[in-house]
Design goal:
343 residues; mainly alpha; globular; 0% strand; 15 helices
């Protein structure tokens, strides 16, 4: 009975996500396959419907997105990577500044206690932050809600900002051929295996990295040449949007009301810091400001990389920066003394 309920909830979640994708496509919102499901599934969850995806669908979704990103890795991309260390360094400064500024605002302006403000202020790595909150005097529910609002707002706001303020990239290059069924299945199975290894190694976004590594190696070695079929890419984006929306399961209206403006504050402040960091990086590097903004905006790794892929930017560059951001948070959270442990 429980399995049947989960299957029903999964099918309902995907159906609502599909409807959201179609709606946002019709109205012309950027990256509709991601943003539409995120909004509509969030609304359904807040209305009390149980929104979820069966366990196996999550790694499959992230693996397919990793393959999409890996298909863009070319020798030219690797040569451009020589400029990444400086960009990574500027991103590290932005992560620290975002955390400290957001913590101060939540503590002073919103009245959060020190531990809760510290964990809410961290720009990403929600699962790691929630696990860490078990050992500190923080309100875990508030942390989860505020962080989920941040991810949702950034997933919606970044595509809108790019569409409004930046010109569409030039797609003059010939499109890649579509991978056939055999190539797709081979890449997916290998990537799932590598992704599971990465998960056991506790690497951030393990399954996405698995897809990226296997797909990029295949492209660079000329063993495969092409991109994922459009229906598979669209399905992965819809599932990702649904996952973002499903984070709002079980949230009480009173908690949402108190956390909404805190999440909006975090989103706006983090975008300002990301924009300043992007301008600084663009001044030293021959890189487009739009791709730097997506790379520096502290949204989910999978969501930001998917946005980059859909908007014609370099998703491998974007994913690399977001994985680096999560590694910074993993290494520095305990060392920076952002929270006050229980005695």
């Amino acid at each position: 009975m429980q399995n049947a309920s989960r299957i029903y909830s999964t099918l309902l979640t995907l159906l609502i996500g599909l409807v959201g994708a179609v709606m946002f496509h019709v109205i012309g919102f950027p990256v509709p396959m991601l943003t539409g499901p995120a909004v509509l599934v969030s609304c359904a969850a807040l209305l009390g419907l149980r929104m979820q995806l069966l366990g196996p669908l999550k790694p499959l979704c992230f693996t397919l997105l990793g393959i999409v990103i890996g298909c863009t890795v070319t020798p030219d991309v690797l040569r451009a990577a020589l400029a990444w260390p400086l960009s990574f360094s500027i991103l590290a400064v932005c992560v620290v500044c975002t955390t400290l500024l957001c913590r101060w605002g939540l503590y002073r302006l919103f009245g959060f206690d020190w531990a809760t403000a510290s964990l809410c202020a961290l720009p990403g790595h929600l699962s790691f932050v929630l696990a860490y909150s078990e050992d500190v005097a923080a309100n875990t529910s508030v942390v989860a809600v505020v962080q989920s609002i941040r991810v949702l707002f950034l997933s919606l706001g970044v595509p809108a900002i790019l569409a409004i303020f930046f010109a569409a990239p030039d797609f003059a290059a010939a499109p890649l051929p579509t991978l056939n069924l055999k190539e797709t299945l081979t890449l997916a199975m290998l990537a799932l295996g590598i992704g599971r290894v990465f998960q056991h190694m506790r690497l951030p976004a393990g399954f996405l990295l698995g897809g990226l590594v296997i797909s990029s190696l295949g492209q660079l070695s000329s063993l495969v040449d092409g991109r994922l079929a459009d229906p598979l890419e669209a399905a992965a984006l819809i599932a990702l949007g649904a996952l973002i929306g499903s984070r709002f399961n079980g949230i009480q209206p009173s908690m949402l009301k108190s956390a909404f403006f805190a999440g909006l504050f975090l989103t706006c402040l983090s975008i300002v810091v990301a924009a300043l960091g992007s301008l600084c990086a663009a001044a030293f590097l021959d890189l487009d400001l739009a791709i730097l903004l997506v790379s520096f905006a502290p949204g989910g790794v999978e969501a930001m990389a998917a946005i980059a892929a859909e908007m014609g930017l370099n998703p491998a560059f974007v994913a690399g920066h977001h994985v680096w951001r999560l590694m910074i948070l993993t290494l520095l959270l305990p060392a920076l003394g952002l929270v006050k442990p229980r005695r």
